[in-house]
Amino acid sequence: MTNLVSFHEAFSLPAHLHAHTPAELRGNDRSDVKLLHTERKNGRIQDRTLIDLTELLQPNDLLLFNRSRTIPAQLVSETDNVTVRLARQLTETSWEALILGKDKTVVQLQDGVTLHVQGDGSEAPLKRVTFHGLQEPVLSFLHKYGEPIRYEYINTPWSLEAYQTVFASVPGSIEMPSAGRAFSWKLIHQLKQNHIQVGFLTLHAGISYYEDNQWPDPLHHPEAYMIPAETITAIHEAKARGGRIIAVGTTVVRAVESYAQKKPSHQGAWTDTTNLFIQRKTPLQLVDGLLSGLHEPHSSHLELLRAFLPDDALLSSYQHALQNNYLWHEFGDVHLML
To answer: Which UniProt keywords apply (predicted)?
Structure first.
């Protein structure tokens, strides 16, 4: 397990800073969130709002979004009160999953479908499970009987649509790639009017938390990603014009830097899997800036953020966010490191 001891000791997250409610239900619009801006060159911190991106970004900059769509990856048994959180698809009917509740070898689901535990997964506490008795594709079954994964800080069973970005179009993420959630089509249009470029890729995000203070080790969780040819072209053209590449979310950083490490000789569409673990000493080859949510002390995402900011600047940014009541998690505020 990844354990960032220094950050864990440096701050804790008070309950009132957990975002319980989607931004559009707290304010006027899903883009109605605060933006914490930390300048990479000097560590300067500014309090802004997301719509200020039209001022903070420059013509020829390229914003890259993850268009993966969240699937309802949590199932509850018809008996025994067992909760199954799917973590990663292995074959058409086999998955790695987190099983919460009674220790079962067979979990009874709806429509006579059963889930059989086959053995241990890639790391504890994951298990390898297989669906039996399906009369339809797994994704169809999930949309009938599944629900989005929710953690203890969410008090309301929000619908699956609350866990989607406006541009989500390729189903596959276990949890929402949430950094892009606050973007509306209106804001994206305003950015384009300011000659800020926009591109899309797909990386299906996996499960982020195992319960009981256990977090996934990214090295054990390869994720599939696809970068379209037009996005690859846009990256190279932006660089040639002196523009900056700003990733919206850690999943985008992982996909783009995985592509960069492979150094393909062609600029066509690129499909691959990655277990790249970006950390403090990882050289960033293509991405110049990151727009991300705010992460909990033990999250492995914090290690990736250390590739963008030195520890003192990152810690100062998080202390500032705490002192100024920024909201955490998928419905919370955002942090720009540029």
So the answer is: Cytoplasm, Isomerase, Queuosine biosynthesis, S-adenosyl-L-methionine, Transferase
